[in-house]
Predict the 3D structure of the following.
Amino acid sequence: MTHRERIARALLRTYPAHTRASLGAEMAGTVLDSSDASHRMFARECSALVVAGVRARARGSASEKVLGQLVDGYVLAGQIWLGLLLSYGTAQLLRNPVQGLGGGLVFVLVLWPILGISLIGARRTGGTAATTWIVCLILIAAPTPLKVAVTWLLPLTSCLAMATCQQNGRRDLRRLVWLAPVAIMSLLPQSRELALGTAQIDGLILGSAVAVAIFPINPRLLVACAVVWTVIGLMSAVPDHGQQSVPLLALSAPLLLLATTSRLALARRRARL
Amino acid sequence: MELRRPSYFALAALLDGPLHGYGIMKRAAELSDGEVRLSTGTLYAALERAMNESLVIAGDPYVVAGRERRDYQLTPAGRAALEEEADRLAKAARRVQGRLANAHRPELA
């Protein structure tokens, strides 16, 4: 395989998987045919390929069912939330290992495998384990189980959706690479902010910015971020959990979710026209 | 059904017989006097749409010099869509040309 062919095949990843599978090899061949002698033509072909690939993804995303995308986003929110909690718990444990040997160590030891299992594609198993874990957490959180239940309602339903609404995907160990950001956030210096640590909140802000950027081709991440911000808003509004009360955040996140849903419905209607 | 300019010339390129992707790109450039230069991304988006609407059918893939190719052929429905679009464009051109011929030329100062 030539250098140019490798580049063309890499850029074809901007296309949806089904287009890549049916037309990918042929398209790579056509890119090479049409730009054989010219570096300029090859550069033009490559940029046009990326634009067309992103458009193809946007068309595909707009034609999917809104409810399906919301459920996918909701499930993704569960995974992101588990990742943020895990990162915060690990950071606390690393900073103060002696104090953390009680509940903190168990918390971290249980969460790492749960998140890993759900990431590699065993979503039902991971979702069931996460749901069980959250229920146990609510039950042992006396004397204020109701307050804890309120703040854990969204993560609980999200993990429940992971356990019930989704098919187990194809096993792919490469997805464990998503544990790397969780580990990195654990190692960063941080103080407590909005019911989590600063590193987790900064990571979520970064993720939300990416979600806004990729919204036309994949709206699930924005749905997930909106759900996670809602959870953080609710937790911050409960005095036991947050240092500050942030009702504005708790109010704005569901509105963002509503706006995302409306935008999805609009994109789908346009795709039908 | 209105065809976009790239799709129009991509389909027109297939009037003389089946062609592979690069062949369509070259023929479309010739037919449009070099005005339409299809990129691979644009061409395959147009072909995918045309195949979904049964305007074009794809043959079996084959390999030439290590590169995969496939010939595309215009269907009767594709030919009809092309005729319809050509008529529409011709009518629009005639209408404007008629107006141009009858209209007073503005005098330049």
Notes: Chain A has two domains: 3-63, 66-272. Strands of chain A lie at 192-193, 196-197.
